[in-house]
Amino acid sequence: MKKKFGLLAGLICLGLLCAPVYAEEEKAAKEMDQMVVTATKTETPLREVAASVDVLDREELELRSQPNGDFIDLLRNIPGMTVARAYAPFPATVRMRGGVGQTVILVNGLPVDFKMSQSIPNEIIDRVEIVRGPTSAIYGANATGGVINIITKTGSENLRAEIRGGGGTSGTYRTSVMTEGKEDNVGFAFAGHYGGSAGENVVENNNNPTIHMINKCKYNKSGAAASGKYDFGRASSVTLFYNYWWGDYMRGRVYYGGEWERNYANVKFNQGFNDMFDMQVNLAYHVDDLLHTYDKGGTNYYTPHQRRYTDYEAIPIDVQFNGRFFDGKNTLTLGYFHSDKTEEQDYRDWNTNAELNLIKFSEETWAVYAQDTWKILDNLILSTGIRYDDWKNYDNYFGNYVNRTPDERSEDNWSPKVGLRYNFNTATSVWANYGQGFNTPTATQLYDDRTAGGNKRIPNPDLKPEKTHSYELGADHWFGNIANVKLVGFHTYTEDTILSSFTAANTVTNQNIGKTESTGAELNLDFFITPEWSTGGNYTYNVAEVDENPTDRTLEGKTLLYAPEHQFNWDVTYKKPEDITACLSVRYTGDQHVNDSNEKYNAAGEQLYMNSSWVVDFKATKTILKDKWILDKADFSFYIDNIFNEKYRTMIYYEDPGTTVYSEIALYFD
Questions:
Q1: Would you identify the family this protein belongs to, as annotated (predicted)?
Q2: CB atoms within 10 A of CB 279
Q3: Do 141 and 365 touch, CB atoms closer than 8 A?
Q4: Sign of CA dihedral 21, 22, 23, 25
């Protein structure tokens, strides 16, 4: 692996030396001056960030199709990222560079349960920042692969509103409203949405009888979100955000479904003291009330079994102090983080309402961190950071476990990082970083031995936390206003990797499997042919495999779960403002394994892996009215996802629904 990483580093350096040098150009300057907050927890131009960062702004959020109704669909086009999703009713699981459970979802800078990613309406999202690579020194446990930060709107300068409505394949429909504006020192934004679908049968295979569907997976979704910001003056402000989401679904079986309700509230207070010092307090409250219903599993499609009522509560808070020294060349951030989470799962007999099982557990994390960014020279930036996390699992009750009240479990860890970026000019940059992190086992991995819908879970109270070391080396070069090339090499190795997977008997197991490694490269190319036409894409090569497994040597050299060796994305885009926008996308994802032994077929010949796929998508938006009556404009959008009806799986045994068509009318008032 070390030889491979050395070769990647050599290729990056060689490519940089061979690249022609151009004078400062408008596109390069605009890109490099873009401000991001996620990589350093303070507003920082991209030219000073020693990490791989992608930003999905409003234009990107509108450009491509989102067949599942949330922005996670757009991450399929980001280098090094894989998205696994059972189907549109369910939230997606995102993995970066082969890491399992190593990606943290943030909302306005605070960590949330990954299921929140489907709950926030696109209409109220201002942008999404994606940082790939080690971020545990800033965001703590489970952020060893990277973070995705959803940043919500706080109001536009001018009062505006949108009304949208559309429909398509499988009886899918969605309507939404959005309004935002600003008056003096008060900004606001509001969005509401409602939609649903008659669904598709997305599990026709028989390799897991419990998941096999005999009907369509139908669903409904609705919700509302509101945000606001009040500027007190003198660098002091308060920002509020609230999101409500509700959904129900029937999972292709008569008694297999559920109803979900999520509430999330966030308040952020900023206080500037002078030109040198400021502080920020960021607090959230997250409550979920969920119902899952089950039949008896297997082929017992028409036999109701149980209901699971889940209550989830989380209260994260982050307090951050920033100081700027030496005429702004040095920024020091000191912070404190605390989070409390509780979850209760109450299993009841469908017919008698008798209690079948009860699961309760709590988790507490507190952390302190420091981050320092130093402009040693105008074009040389050094970034260092360290974080101490103390994690505790307590108040456990697992009704079916051999010990119903397991003792509390605690772990602590120091996560350092260092990064260096050098800008040769506004067109050419190189960077390198190194970071450590850790990933704690969950309470359910430790103690949950329930059987839900026919699938038995085997807990492992002896699980140890993962320890991860990550390296990254990157280069970025602009060829005038014509093209941009980014090349990143990465290497990550994890000790005591936690693997949760299905066995051949459809039993979920949890185990530490020794040491795993991911080594690869990401190449990103963008070409700006004319002011209207552009094309570009990316290629990811990633070898993610088990390096050492003392308990089972036969697994050494096996590929990690959901880690394709090859990924490729390419777009052709036409943009003519206030007239038409169109984007044709091609996506290739290589084979993905879903079991630790990398078996592709079971004894009955049923497919056990996710086969490679070439998928072509298209979306076009045409302005059909402009400055008519009270309208600013009206747009008609049309998309086809999976044009050629490629047969592939989106998660374990779940199949893509095939070609889907959707059209929408959007009315804009300004």
A1: Belongs to the TonB-dependent receptor family.
A2: 16
A3: yes
A4: negative
Report the sign of the C-alpha dihedral through residues 456, 561, 215, 619, in that order: positive
Token pair 């497919």 in the structure block, residue? 607
Q: In the β-sheet with 455-458, what is the strand arrangement from edge to edge?
A: 451-452, 455-458, 508-512, 498-502
Q: Which residue from 246, 258, 202 is spatially nearest to 222, judged by alpha carbons?
A: 246
- By three-state DSSP, how is residue 12 classified? helix
For each of the domains in the chain, give its residue range(s) and CATH number, in order of start. Answer: 2-669 (2.40.170.20)
Give the single-character DSSP code of 84.
E
CA dist 96 and 79 (Å) reads: 9
Q: State the Cα–Cα distance between residues 439 and 168, nearest whole angstrom.
A: 41
Q: What are phi and psi of 329, to 5 degrees?
A: -80, -15
- Which residue, among 262, 254, 346, has the nearest Cα to 303 in the 3D structure? 254
Beta strands in 46-185 (DSSP E): 52-56, 81-84, 93-96, 103-107, 110-112, 125-132, 146-152, 160-168, 172-183
CA trace torsion 72, 78, 81, 82 (10° rounding): 50
Distances (CA, A) of 251 to 261, 304, 452, 503: 17, 13, 14, 22
What pTM value is reported for the model? 0.92
pLDDT tens digits, one per residue of 503-557: 656 677 778 888 999 999 999 999 999 999 999 999 999 999 999 988 889 989 9
The C-alpha atoms of residue 145 and residue 434 are separated, in whole angstroms, by 12
pLDDT tens-digit readout, 103-157: 899 999 999 998 898 999 999 999 999 999 888 889 988 888 899 999 999 999 9
